[in-house]
Amino acid sequence: MMKKWRQQMKRWMTEKLELPADIMMDLPRITMVGQIHIYIENHRGLLAFSDKELRLLLRNGQLLVRGEQFVIKTILPEEILLEGKISQVVYIEEEKR
Amino acid sequence: MKNEWVDTFTGSVRVKAEGKGTERLINACVRNGITVWNVKKHSRDTATFFIKLSDVKRLRHIARQSECKLSFVGRTGLPFFWRRAWRNSGFWLGLFVFIAIMFLLSNIVWNIDIEGAAPETEHQIVRELKRMGVERGAFQFLLDDPETLQKKLTERIHDITWVGVQWEGTSLHFRVVEKEIPKPKQPASPRHLVAKKEAVVADLFVEEGQPLVSVNDYVQKGQLLVSGIIGVEGRTKFVPSTGKVFGETWYKSTVVLPLETTFHVLTGKSIERHYIGIGRFSLPVWGWKKPTFTHTVIEREKRPFRFWKWDLPFYYERVIVREAEAVKRSYTWEEAFAEAKKIARRELQAKLPEEATIRGEKVLHQSKESGKVRVELHYTVIENIAVPQPIVQGD
Hints:
Chain B: InterPro entries: YqfD. Chain A is of the alpha+beta class.
């Protein structure tokens, strides 16, 4: 419901407000609250998870989160909320072929 | 974010997944719409997470296609709580039965002890109590309250002057003070006998002392009747004079009596109802009949239930609805005068000591007022007018 509404909203905004199209480009949207929470939207699945590392698949490339005492609070098809002590957020770009 | 308290109602399960590809399992779960939360990795190949109880079946289906071994390590939520409570139902039943028995026993009279009574009186008290339903094993809330017990006991047993009734936990404690019949005392000190009020002496019985008046003498109040000083002059002796001097005395009384009086009389029919209540709310437990009485007198009696040694906020209430009847009494003028005279006589007799007699009655005045009669009467009474007065011996 939220997602649908958000996509409709996006379409409407790009049409009406002529926003740059890269917002529509299926890029991840990351929200962090200090070191303790990280909320990632638009991911493509879990690749690896341990209490020190989280590896997520993105549309192009991967996202690597490092830290300590990781707990996945919630996981939905395109959203994930991670708790713990976050020290690094790293983008790993796919090699261009 | 999801509401976690909803899961406490539906129940949730903690799953432990072992093997390679726990991440893939979680991805598969998420894609199939299973809500997964609190995912933790304990080592390279073990992860734990929570799912809803209702998703367990689907998880099994998904897990078959993965390389993970699943085990359930924790259950929380209401469904599991109920299941556990049901499994422990024996314990709960036991606890309930224990409390019930405790409650029952707390409301029973366990002991009646009577203190300060002679064996015969004690026996009499026990018998009287049994008739009122007070005995070992009776329910406390069915009994009268201590004040009523006290009143009834002192009324019914003549040998006791006072009885203190007190609850001490589940035992009823009676403290009795018995009547002591005083021994007739011999008057020791010398005394005179003097007149209690003005009268005409009608008769004299002097046992000891020197009578100073004779029959038909008119005496004033306080006048010396029998002297305690006897003997001729010079050789006098002081004695405690005793005796009775009957004198004719006079009384006047006025009685006003209405011709018509209405009063409420109980017919003897009654309905009992029993309630159990808390605070101002009470629940009927017995007695459903609707009274068909037009006039009623309602009696209420509340007794708290007890537990161990405390009074509970619950109480037992007995309501007795008695039928009352309005009775109208009417007299004719003649009847009213006669009745008024009777009343006056009765009132006077109640006032006089036992050995006094009413000798004569004379109507001084009688009148009819609006719906009332008024009668003034004059009585001649023969009574003992002698009262002792000690002789103060000076030198």
